[in-house]
TrEMBL record:
This is Uncharacterized protein. GO terms for molecular function: sphinganine-1-phosphate aldolase activity. Its cofactor is pyridoxal 5'-phosphate. Keywords: Lyase, Pyridoxal phosphate. The keyword S-adenosyl-L-methionine does not apply. SUPFAM superfamilies: PLP-dependent transferases. It comes from Caenorhabditis remanei. It comes from the Eukaryota. GO terms for biological process: sphingolipid catabolic process. One of its GO terms (cellular component) is endoplasmic reticulum. InterPro entries: GrpII_AminoAcid_Decarb, PyrdxlP-dep_Trfase, PyrdxlP-dep_Trfase_major.
């Protein structure tokens, strides 16, 4: 121990001797500059983008400014845009467009006529089982469809934002939330809310988890996700500035590597994401 102490004193004396060769103001300025740079690098590493992503973003942004590369990119984007417009506008020749608000209101018959036209524009692909999402019931089941139409008709004028005026809607929402809580092994303190769709549901969940960790004093937040996760998680990460740690999935089973997922957990982890069934492939 004494030898170690003596060596420390010797090292200190050598350091002082060396530093005395420099201007004190230069030493202070250099120390301040180095500390500032290292602190910012640390923040960049911990924030939602990270140093690697910032460098790659800067690099590709710079490269895309090169004239001939910009022209190549614009050409490919124009081709994709044309194909996309063609695929979306296949039935457009069968209808008319309204570009301005009508000066005079139209009658019931005209509204129903237009509704019939729009209804007939939908393709039969989802009835043939050729889509991966969008519709989750059988439209060719007449009884089921009539039941939905009757229920929707009864509550078409309700507004969930006014639970005192529409207690039935509030009860239905509470029942659905409680069903989901029980399905996910929640307790009496578990709560939730209904949203308008899948993406916004994911965004709200990510926001809740991020805020929970921020309230605990953590400045930076991260989520750990399988590489096959729903795209809305990346929307949430960009919107709420959450760093994403992607964990690869098995190329055969498409299951996430739990060992790597566990190793990625740290004090900044605000949520772990699982996907069952797997979003892009439907596997478990």
């Amino acid at each position: 121990m004494e030898v170690l102490t003596q060596n420390l004193y010797v090292a200190k004396d050598l350091l002082v001797t060396e530093l005395q060769k420099y201007n004190p103001i230069a030493l202070v300025a250099t120390t301040f500059f180095v500390t500032y740079v290292l602190t910012n690098l640390r923040h960049m590493q911990l924030d939602d983008m990270g140093i690697r992503k910032r460098i790659s973003t800067w690099f590709f942004t710079t490269v895309k400014r090169v004239p001939f590369i910009r022209r190549m990119i614009d050409k490919q984007l124009d081709e994709v845009k044309v194909e996309l417009e063609k695929s979306l506008q296949i039935p457009d020749h069968t209808t008319e467009y309204f570009r301005t608000i009508p000066v005079k209101s139209v009658g019931r018959e005209e509204v129903l006529r237009l509704a019939t036209i729009y209804d007939h524009l939908e393709g039969p692909a989802f009835l043939e089982g050729r889509v991966s999402g969008a519709v989750f019931n059988r439209e060719d089941d007449k009884d089921e469809r009539e039941m939905y139409e009757e229920v929707f008709g009864r509550f078409a004028w309700s507004n969930p934002l006014w639970p005192k005026l529409f207690p039935g809607v509030r009860i239905m929402e509470a029942e659905v939330v409680r069903m989901c809580c029980n399905m996910m092994n929640g307790d009496e303190e578990t709560c939730g809310t209904m949203s308008t769709g899948g993406s916004i549901s994911i965004l709200l969940a990510c926001l809740a988890h991020r805020n929970r960790l921020l309230k605990r004093g953590e400045k930076y937040t991260e989520m750990i996700v399988p590489s096959s996760v729903h795209a809305a998680f990346f929307k949430a990460a960009e919107t709420f500035r959450i760093k994403v740690r992607k964990i690869p999935v098995d190329p055969v089973t498409f299951k996430v590597d739990l060992t790597k997922m566990r190793a990625a957990i740290n004090s900044r982890t605000c949520m772990l994401v699982g996907s069952a069934p797997n979003f892009p492939f439907g596997t478990r």
